[in-house]
UniProtKB/TrEMBL annotation:
Pfam families in the record: cobW, CobW_C
Matches recorded under Gene3D superfamilies: CobW-like, C-terminal domain (3.30.1220.10), P-loop containing nucleotide triphosphate hydrolases (3.40.50.300)
Reactions catalysed: GTP + H2O = GDP + phosphate + H(+)
InterPro entries on file: CobW-likC_sf, CobW-like_C, CobW/HypB/UreG_nucleotide-bd, P-loop_NTPase, Zinc-reg_GTPase_activator
UniProt domain CobW C-terminal: residue ranges: 217-308
Region Disordered, annotated ranges: 192-212
Keyword Ribosomal protein: no
Sequence similarity: Belongs to the SIMIBI class G3E GTPase family. ZNG1 subfamily.
Entry GO terms, CC: cytoplasm
Organism: Roseomonas indoligenes
Protein's name in the database: GTP-binding protein
Keywords for the protein's UniProt record, in alphabetical order: Chaperone, Hydrolase, Nucleotide-binding
């Protein structure tokens, strides 16, 4: 299984390091490595993160999406060869960088086999966006927001309810397919990131109990013992994408012997080789995560059942 990678982007002062600290503090025993990138000779962010992660790697004097891109890829290679390797990697971009190029690099099939991009989290300053509505027209911030699968409105406690609603409204109009989260002090709903492989469901006739604990979100799981039609599954995924925060699982398509690892977050779906399922496991195991009330379980299961060969 590839090691999941979370890319954290956002403008200067939005609170990226605070968010990463919160993620590392809530790791619950999972070995996480952090790659931080501060635009300057002295990497203050690495000092703030020191002691919080399994491994801190500081990339200095440059931006990982331009001059230091080669350094980042070499760093990932070194991290993956640790014994034991990390179970997740968090990468922080510089606040003055456009993450689009590093996203493209992480989606390279060769890299994805070992270090799969799990999600892109864009941290935005709710107070700054409320004070400067025109900031959303600036090219760099707009590119950072567009790269994010999730937009985290940090410092939400520093704005009024009306100001927050106005910021959310502008973001929804600009980027309607994004999941927008609100937080203060960098607290992150960890369940949305570094998700585990879908749990086994001994009783296939009944839906499994959800283990998802993030307020405001729910999970629906689905399993099957027959392969899927690629064309029908693609159609269903395109219909579900606007409703989902993310989806993940193991599946097998018609005509394929090996199972595939499937992940969808935002508008991006990826497929890769999955290890053989354990004895007795269903051929297809999928988990869907959405904001409460956005999915109807009966409709979802009907759509997925229609994909079976």
């Amino acid at each position: 299984m590839p090691v999941p990678v979370l890319l954290v982007t956002g403008f200067l002062g939005a609170g990226k390091t605070t968010v990463i600290n919160a993620l590392l503090a809530a790791a619950q025993g999972k070995r996480l490595a952090a790659v931080v990138n501060d635009f300057g000779a002295i990497n203050i962010d690495a000092e703030l993160l020191a002691g919080s992660a399994e491994g801190i790697v500081a990339l200095q004097n440059g931006c990982i999406c331009c001059t230091l891109q080669g350094d980042l890829l070499r760093t990932l290679s070194l991290l993956l060869r640790q014994d034991p390797p990390p179970e997740g990697i968090v990468i922080e971009t510089s606040g003055v960088s456009d993450p689009a190029e590093i996203v493209r690099s992480l989606l390279d099939p060769v890299i994805w086999r070992e270090a799969a991009l799990d999600a892109v989290l864009c941290v935005a300053d709710a107070r700054a966006l409320a004070d400067r509505p025109t900031a959303l027209e600036e090219a760099l911030l707009l590119s950072q927001l567009r790269s994010g699968d999730f937009i985290l409105l940090n410092k939400s406690d520093a704005v009024t309810a009306d100001e927050l609603a106005a910021v959310r409204g502008r973001l929804s109009a600009l980027l309607p397919a994004r999941t927008v989260l609100e937080t203060s002090h960098g607290a992150v709903p960890r369940d949305l990131f570094f998700n585990e492989e879908p749990p086994e469901v001994p009783d296939r006739s009944a839906p499994p109990a959800s283990r998802f604990t993030t307020p405001g979100f729910e999970t629906l799981s689905w399993t099957a013992d027959r392969p899927l039609s690629p064309a029908r599954f693609q159609l269903v995924v395109s219909r579900l994408a606007p409703l989902l925060a993310r989806a993940k699982g193991v599946l097998r398509f018609e005509g394929q012997e090996r199972p595939m690892l499937f992940q969808m977050v935002g508008e991006r779906a990826t497929f890769g080789a999955a290890p053989p399922p354990p004895p007795g496991a269903a051929e297809v195991r999928l988990v869907f995560i959405a904001e409460n009330g956005r999915l109807r379980e009966d409709a979802l299961r009907a759509m997925l059942n229609g994909c079976l060969v």
